[in-house]
Design goal:
By secondary structure, the chain is of the alpha+beta class. The chain has a single domain, classed as Endonuclease/exonuclease/phosphatase (Deoxyribonuclease I, Chain A, 4-Layer Sandwich). It is built from five helices and 15 strands. Strands 1, 2, 3, 4, 11, 14 and 15 form a seven-stranded mixed β-sheet that branches. α1 runs parallel beside α2. The model has no long low-confidence stretch (mean pLDDT 91).
Length: 274
Amino acid sequence: MAKIFSVASWNVEHFKQDPDRVARVVGFLAAQNPDVFGLYEVEGATIFDDLVKTMPGYTFQITEGPQTQEILIGVRKGLTAFITQRIEFRSGTTHMRPGQLVTIVKDGTSYMLLFLHLASGADPRGMGLRDDMIDRAFEFRKVLDGKAGGTGKAHYLFLGDLNTMGMEYPFDRQIPAETELRKWDAVAKRRGMTRLTKTQDASWSNGSKSKIPASALDHVVATTNLKFRKFRRPAGGTAEVDLRGWANETTDAARDAWIKAFSDHSLLYFELIE
């Protein structure tokens, strides 16, 4: 089936003024050739210079506010796009990043992509903020459905570093990350949405020497009226989101080297199809 447009989503972990690393990251991103992309944890204004030089066929927009880590959006020139900053996804906390809503209009159809970088932390506060923001992302579908002409009409997805790491609490009251995800999968089903499958589950790793295991922190949640290209999973079968980065390396040494050179998050890539 024909591609409508492609999307990349990538947390680049403290992305700021390190000329060599910036060049590597922007080069890797450009090699994926996405039509739309979101970068998270952008901390340095000078990154714009490298983006403009390496990816001249794109227009860019970045969040603004008192937060130190921004979300930067790129859209290929020639696509009709409208980008707005959604402050309700701060959950009333001024240091949190607002969401970036990108509306792409293709062949008369509007596609709404909400890029999010949610609260991290396995403490009750971190999970509470995250819980509130994901709930708002699901509720936002009602708003978009209303504008699209009725229930189930909107073509909508939210994506990014959702930081679904569960919650730690004493006296055996912890909530595993898998339980947090099961909750949101159940909510998604009720809302006519689904969490897309990935070629590998874990998108984040702190390296082979870390005591924290590789984790599934980055996700794409989409309305069921959208269709996606299928990618082969190394373990067999297919998935709708292709992980690209350290997750593709086959040895600890290679994974550690990639994480050091680029980021502790793999890049998420997917394509919407007709």
